[in-house]
């Protein structure tokens, strides 16, 4: 027998002409006719006793897709001969997206139209997966981790001709409408393709589908006996029966077939006892296909040889078209087999292959397993899934233009896949050093048809690699040419909206579309983010932006930015330059800052003003605050949105695209005297450098005489100009960027004509696309690095980076990373931060890359005499150090995201009655007695218990040093989503305790209290699927409980409701650090107060806490939903949403001294239960984020000089917010990152005003102060310390409480007076 690949290759060459012709169709077609059918008609309930004809099948599948949109998507991959759709139901989380790392599985049924059991069984399987998702842990895990595709009928025409009760298939229907057997019509490894493509559209559609999706595992369901058949289905000899045609993965195929058969009560016996041949038996219920009988042109062999997919064929029933009363029995026989077989897609080895230089994913890389002569290739994201049996393997990744890499002794264990990622180094052609090789677009050198090695020389431990033709000279790959945009037209707002959404949906792994606000006329200000991790700022990766169409009638920038979006998306992963930029830069593109103006502008406008301004007739480029001129015009919504946007993202470099000339204009745009002359910024050299980087890529711009016919007097040396030298522009955006943020911005004038004709747009792309790319490259020049604490390594936010000789500083981002653009040269660069010693480093900057300059700063620590003490600092508690390391890890980068993904639990969602809720809570205490305790807070009007579940490692013991966090839901009974979220959250924490190290540490270090339902009576009255109804909002006495919390007797005219009283006592008796309340009817987070107040003390911290939740929610931080219009960053003060008195939030603040935020989880008060899983997925990370946040801020312990803890000392934050030292003298104050004033007051002790500097965004801050020498009017300066030593607040005894002091003073010698200490825990 010839080696497999030689046979495959020769047969393919001889008889594969049709298949070769069809391959282009395979590459370019893909899914067709995605159905979006309106909901209509009454949904059917499953009876398991009838067959669905085509119309009924269509209706059934459409209803299921509508009912389960979050996990089901119905599409058609093609049509049959008679025009019937080949329906495929995709079942997975986010079924409209492709998620890298999720293997694709498929089932295909009814290939022979008269073999009908498979058709119905697959419909039942779809129903089962959808209905049991969130209920059955096994199904939930399968759907979460697998991309499942189910095609109930590949031959709908044949089914319509088949007759119920026809067991042998005598009445027809087996073949398609052109009388072709579909399972003899696929390209064959021995015979090529022998069937005309036009006669088998069903086969062609499935071929396209297989090639596009790169399935990993598949099952083809048939009828006529009961057995699982595996490849190969035929042989070169085409012996009718009895010839075992063994594939390279024969052992694996046998195993997979056994998985199905051994879970099928009849199949596993090997004795189907079919009337047609009652003597036929199959050992263990499986058979090699060709050994059973020869099937050329079969689908399962095509999948294996040409499709990257392992497929077996399952024969489900002796009778091909049994009576419908047999269907329930057939479903029961096959259900477990269907599920068990699907689960095997998660065995073997899996991982990603990326380019070592660019980090780009490499597709079509061959994954070679030593000793197995069958290679698979990576998919479009570089992901691969190589199914293997348990054992030890040598695995090699082979890609064109790259060095191969082998990993030896890879262990594969039973039941789960081993993760194995490859990073391949590109080959460099010494004669073409400056040419980048395309990493993914060229065909791989290793292909299964060519991978032949003589068995006599094959080492059992070496991979099967291709033989080289040494007689030919080496052929070098051609220089890569990136794909260019294909469509050039003017996009109005609706067209632009669709364009952006299209590319966002087609390239979800590298794009993030969001709106930063709205225009005057309520149009979205869209921003497309393009990066390899587009939704988050990655540490060390610079942020870049382009803004277009600020003047509505200057449109070239708008169209070029849409072209640029297309260019970056379609070339990512194939073009080295694009891939490098996207992987290493977070690129923000706003095509239109003035969409209202654009809509009134007119094509052909050369020098006009129609549409230039916004709808309020203000010029947006004269509307920003100016350093020299007082801008009196009201700030416009577009301007405000951009300013807020720049406050949330640490942009480094930017360009504002205009029209009306051809030049790059750089700061300053105006001068102190208001006249037009050169107004030089401190970074004039940098601005000239980045401006020339653009202009020199546009020859017409660079020559300096751009618009001779319109402005003959204009001349710009090298195509660049200082803004004020050209003409003065007060209130411009580029100067505001530079003066008020870290961002360097220039203005690029792209066209002499403001609104050129559409036919001219291609020439503008040709002239400017290299400049657009080259300008992005400039963000990677100068110096960059991280400023961190030398003690614990944590990044220092808001540290200052100054360069000697340049009077313009930049500051570090939240995690301490920074970027400072500079021209080549040697510089003295200094990093400084409050509470730290500055550090200066000499850095030499080169031309084409950023120099990495990291700073490690030492905290300033002084003793009572203002001197730096000698000797080592006392060390921190190891457990505390470990906790802070965890908090830092979870606060930076993808820490929380990784925690969420590593701590998945099987979830079951439904709305629970009060009785079920109580039973659930009791169940948690019974199953997890060591970490839970159930507190009864009181009873409702109708005597339902209001419970609080405590989760801690010592729930029955007082642990005053640990922060307490309160999660509350159900204060409004008509909004029960929060109740279910908190119940799931409680189960999630308990189940992961002892299993997930991070969850375990958080529980060990926190006292967590969960109150799922404050208003159980109202919940009993509320009705599911009522999105706006107030039924159940109040308690049984008709009282809105969130208006019943009054702490002062003078404010209360009646007794509090029993539910309110229970919560008030609970809040007052427990010194909580933070509270999170869940409600419904909106998608926003609010912070105190609900009552109307002029000012909110410590508002910055309260707003920050709310933003932590919103930023960890995938939708909320966008700030715009149907029910919460234009809420900046998804956060607002509660009174601005709906002002009212007597709220739980206000009571918690005023009387519990605990900040409380309210999370509104969705627009619908009481959504259908099938939406709960999606809502949990949206809120899980945010809830965990609050558990992390409660460990930040400032905390300590207050003791007197003798070491006795002082209870009741008042810690006043920023003159308003107060916290009190509790049992053991402990206190804890949550603070936003930055500097804060802290005052400590205690009876009998001198009051001190301290300043806590630089609270970190990612860790807990501790206090260190100078020691007061005597009773002297003045303040002490308090510094932030997170070092591993004990820090103190020492207050001199006064004998009585005094008023707060006001002036700073210098400390002198220490006295013997009694002192009060605040020590670090």
UniProtKB/TrEMBL annotation:
Q: Per UniProt, which keywords does this protein have? A: Carboxypeptidase, Glycoprotein, Hydrolase, Metal-binding, Metalloprotease, Protease, Zinc
Q: What is this protein called?
A: Carboxypeptidase D, a
Show the InterPro entries listed in the entry: CarboxyPept-like_regulatory (IPR008969), CARBOXYPEPT_ZN_1 (IPR057246), CARBOXYPEPT_ZN_2 (IPR057247), M14_CPD_III (IPR033848), Peptidase_M14 (IPR000834), Peptidase_M14_domain (IPR050753)
Q: Where is the composition biased (Polar residues)?
A: 440-459
Provide the residue span(s) of the region labelled Disordered.
154-195, 440-483
Where in the numbering of this chain does the Peptidase M14 domain appear? 50-345, 489-779, 910-1190
Q: Which GO terms describe its biological process?
A: peptide metabolic process; protein processing
Report the SMART domains cross-referenced here: Zn_pept
Q: Which family does it belong to?
A: Belongs to the peptidase M14 family.
Q: Which GO terms describe its molecular function?
A: metallocarboxypeptidase activity; zinc ion binding
Residues of the active site: 315 (proton donor/acceptor), 749 (proton donor/acceptor)
Query: Whose protein is this, by species?
Result: Oryzias melastigma (Marine medaka)
> Entry's SUPFAM superfamilies?
Carboxypeptidase regulatory domain-like, Zn-dependent exopeptidases
What is one GO cellular-component annotation here?
Answer: extracellular space
Q: Which cofactor does it need?
A: Zn(2+)
């Amino acid at each position: 027998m010839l080696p497999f690949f030689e046979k495959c290759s020769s047969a393919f060459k001889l008889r594969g002409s049709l298949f070769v012709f069809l391959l282009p169709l395979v590459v370019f077609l893909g899914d067709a006719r995605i159905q979006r059918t309106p909901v209509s008609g009454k949904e059917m309930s499953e009876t398991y006793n009838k067959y669905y004809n085509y119309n009924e099948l269509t209706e059934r599948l459409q209803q299921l897709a509508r009912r389960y949109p979050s996990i089901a998507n119905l599409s058609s991959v093609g049509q049959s001969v008679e025009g019937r759709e080949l329906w495929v139901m995709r079942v997975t989380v986010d079924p409209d997206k492709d998620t890298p790392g999720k293997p694709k599985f498929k089932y295909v049924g009814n290939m022979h139209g008269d073999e009908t059991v498979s058709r119905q069984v697959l419909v039942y399987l779809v129903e089962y997966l959808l209905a049991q998702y969130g209920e059955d842990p096994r199904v939930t895990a399968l759907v979460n981790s697998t991309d499942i595709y189910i095609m109930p009928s590949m031959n709908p025409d044949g089914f319509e001709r088949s007759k119920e009760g026809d067991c042998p298939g005598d009445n027809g229907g087996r073949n398609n409408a052109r009388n072709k057997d579909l399972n003899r019509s696929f390209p064959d490894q021995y015979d090529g393709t022998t069937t005309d493509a036009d006669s088998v559209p069903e086969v062609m559609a499935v071929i396209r589908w297989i090639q596009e999706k790169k399935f990993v595992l598949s099952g083809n369901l048939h009828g006529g006996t009961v057995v699982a058949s595996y490849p190969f289905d035929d042989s070169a000899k085409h012996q009718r029966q009895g010839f075992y045609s063994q594939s390279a993965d024969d052992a694996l195929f046998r195993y997979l077939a056994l998985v199905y058969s051994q879970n099928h009560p009849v199949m596993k016996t090997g004795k189907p006892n079919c009337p047609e041949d009652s003597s036929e038996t199959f050992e263990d219920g499986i058979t090699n296909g060709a050994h059973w009988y020869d099937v050329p042109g079969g689908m399962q062999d095509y999948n294996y040889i040409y499709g990257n997919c392992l497929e077996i064929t399952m024969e489900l029933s002796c009778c091909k078209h049994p009576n419908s009363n047999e269907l329930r029995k057939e479903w029961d026989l096959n259900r477990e087999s269907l599920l068990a077989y699907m689960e095997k897609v998660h065995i073997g080895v899996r991982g990603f292959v990326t380019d070592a230089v660019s980090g780009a994913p490499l597709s079509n890389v061959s994954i070679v397993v030593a000793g197995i002569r069958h290679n698979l290739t990576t998919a479009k994201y570089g992901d691969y899934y190589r199914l293997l049996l348990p054992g030890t393997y040598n695995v090699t990744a082979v890609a064109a233009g790259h060095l191969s890499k082998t990993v030896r002794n890879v262990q594969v264990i039973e039941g789960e896949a081993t993760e194995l990622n490859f990073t391949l180094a590109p080959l460099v052609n010494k004669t073409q050093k400056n040419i980048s090789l395309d990493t993914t677009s060229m065909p791989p050198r290793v292909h299964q048809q060519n991978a032949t090695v003589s068995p006599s020389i094959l080492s059992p431990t070496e991979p099967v690699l291709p033989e080289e033709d040494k007689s030919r000279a080496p052929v070098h790959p051609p220089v890569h040419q990136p794909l260019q945009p294909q469509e050039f037209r003017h996009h109005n707002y609706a067209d632009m909206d669709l364009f952006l959404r299209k590319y966002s949906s087609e390239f979800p792994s590298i794009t993030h579309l969001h709106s930063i606000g709205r225009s005057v006329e309520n149009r979205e200000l869209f921003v497309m983010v393009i990066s390899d991790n587009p939704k988050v700022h990655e540490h060390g990766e610079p942020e870049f932006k382009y803004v277009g169409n600020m003047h509505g009638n200057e449109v070239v920038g708008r169209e070029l930015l849409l072209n640029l979006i297309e260019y970056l998306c379609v070339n990512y992963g194939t073009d080295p330059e694009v891939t490098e930029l996207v992987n290493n830069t977070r690129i923000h593109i706003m095509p239109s800052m003035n969409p209202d103006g654009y809509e009134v502008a007119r094509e052909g406008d050369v020098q006009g003003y129609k549409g230039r301004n916004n709808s309020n007739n203000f010029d947006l480029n004269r509307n920003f605050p100016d350093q020299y001129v007082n801008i009196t015009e009201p700030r416009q919504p577009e301007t405000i949105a951009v300013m807020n946007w720049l406050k949330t993202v640490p942009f480094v470099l930017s360009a504002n695209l205009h029209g009306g000339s051809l030049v790059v204009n750089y700061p300053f745009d105006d001068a102190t005297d208001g006249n037009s002359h050169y107004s030089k910024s401190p970074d004039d050299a940098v601005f000239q450098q980045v401006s020339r980087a653009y202009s020199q890529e546009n020859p017409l711009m660079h020559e300096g005489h751009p618009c001779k016919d319109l402005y003959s007097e204009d001349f710009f040396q090298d195509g660049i100009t200082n803004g004020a030298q050209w003409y003065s522009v007060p209130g411009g955006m580029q100067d505001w960027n530079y003066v008020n943020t870290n961002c360097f911005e220039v203005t690029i004038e792209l066209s002499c004509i403001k609104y050129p004709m559409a036919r001219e747009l291609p020439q503008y792309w040709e002239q400017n696309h290299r400049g657009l790319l080259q300008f992005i490259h400039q963000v990677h020049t100068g110096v960059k690095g991280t400023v961190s604490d030398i003690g614990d390594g944590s990044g220092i936010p808001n540290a200052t980076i100054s360069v000697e000789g340049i009077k313009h500083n930049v500051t570090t981002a939240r995690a301490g990373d920074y970027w400072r653009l500079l021209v080549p040269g040697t510089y003295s660069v200094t990093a400084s931060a409050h509470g730290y010693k500055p550090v200066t480093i000499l850095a030499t900057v080169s031309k084409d890359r950023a120099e990495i300059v990291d700073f490690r700063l030492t905290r300033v620590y002084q003793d009572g005499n203002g001197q730096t003490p000698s000797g080592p600092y006392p060390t921190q508690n190891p457990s505390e150090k470990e906790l802070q390391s965890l908090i830092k890890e979870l606060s930076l980068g993808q820490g929380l995201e990784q925690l969420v993904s590593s701590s998945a639990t099987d979830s079951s969602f439904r709305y629970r009655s009060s009785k079920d809720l109580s039973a659930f809570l009791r169940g948690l205490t019974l199953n997890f007695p060591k970490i839970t305790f159930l507190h009864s807070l009181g009873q409702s009007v109708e005597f339902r218990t209001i419970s609080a579940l405590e989760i801690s490692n010592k729930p029955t013991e007082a642990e005053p040093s640990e922060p307490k966090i309160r999660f509350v839901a159900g204060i409004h009974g008509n909004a029960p989503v929060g109740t279910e979220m908190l119940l799931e959250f409680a189960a999630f924490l308990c189940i992961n305790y002892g299993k997930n190290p991070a969850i375990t540490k958080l529980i060990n270090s926190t006292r967590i209290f969960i109150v799922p339902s404050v208003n159980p009576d109202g919940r009993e009255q509320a009705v599911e699927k009522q999105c706006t109804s107030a039924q159940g909002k109040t308690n049984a006495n008709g009282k809105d409980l969130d208006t019943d919390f009054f702490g002062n007797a003078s404010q209360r005219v009646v007794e509090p409701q029993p539910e309110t009283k229970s919560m008030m006592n609970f809040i007052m008796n427990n010194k909580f650090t933070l509270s999170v309340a869940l409600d419904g009817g909106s998608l926003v987070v609010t912070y105190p107060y609900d009552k109307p107040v002029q000012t909110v003390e410590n508002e910055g911290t309260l707003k920050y806490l709310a933003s932590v939740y919103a930023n960890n929610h995938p939708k909320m931080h966008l700030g715009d939903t149907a029910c919460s219009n234009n809420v900046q960053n998804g956060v607002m003060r509660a009174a601005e949403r709906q002002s009212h008195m007597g709220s739980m939030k206000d009571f918690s603040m005023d009387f519990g001294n605990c900040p409380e935020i309210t999370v509104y989880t969705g627009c619908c008060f009481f959504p259908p239960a099938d939406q709960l899983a999606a809502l949990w997925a949206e809120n899980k990370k945010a809830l965990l984020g609050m558990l992390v946040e409660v460990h930040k801020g400032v905390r300590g312990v207050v003791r007197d000089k003798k070491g006795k803890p002082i209870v009741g000392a008042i810690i006043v934050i920023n003159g308003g917010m107060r916290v009190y030292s509790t049992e053991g003298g402990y206190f804890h104050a949550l603070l936003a990152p930055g500097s804060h004033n802290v005052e400590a007051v205690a009876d009998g002790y001198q009051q001190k005003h301290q300043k806590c500097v630089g609270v970190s965004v990612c860790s807990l801050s501790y206090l260190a102060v100078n020691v007061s020498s005597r009773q002297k009017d003045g303040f002490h300066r308090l510094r932030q310390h997170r070092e591993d030593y004990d820090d103190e607040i020492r207050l001199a005894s006064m004998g009585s409480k005094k008023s707060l002091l006001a002036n700073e003073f210098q400390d002198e010698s220490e006295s013997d007076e009694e002192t009060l200490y605040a020590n670090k825990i």
